[in-house]
Amino acid sequence: MIAHLRTSKYAISDILRVAKDCKHxxxxxxxxxxxxRITISEMKKHPWFVKNLAIEYxxxxxxxxxxxxxxxxxxxxxxxxxxxxxxxxxxxxxxxxPTKIFDDPFxxxxxxxxxxxxxxxxxxxxxxxxxxxxM
Length: 135
Hints:
The protein is mainly alpha-helical. 42% of the residues lie in helices and 0% in strands.
């Protein structure tokens, strides 16, 4: 494999789903002549590399452009961490309260399977413990 890479004889399998930008970056990395290979600084500016990279890890012009884009109100969180945690806590509190909307054992109420088994409406379920399947 190393010999193939050194001579730039490599192929990406058609089975793998690889983005076009990623293939382009790989083709620039695996160049036989080291003087013609992509440099680290060029890699850091490559569209595939910076696509989902956190702003903290970006450098130079790319970082400043991304930061400016992120300054739009729609692009950054309008809530503080404390507000987000309060919303999560409220959601947990609300979902912890049992609610019985219908008399159906599978909608609302408890999800305890023992309670479902003792329900009078559910008397056609075989609880013998035997595994039954169609042949």
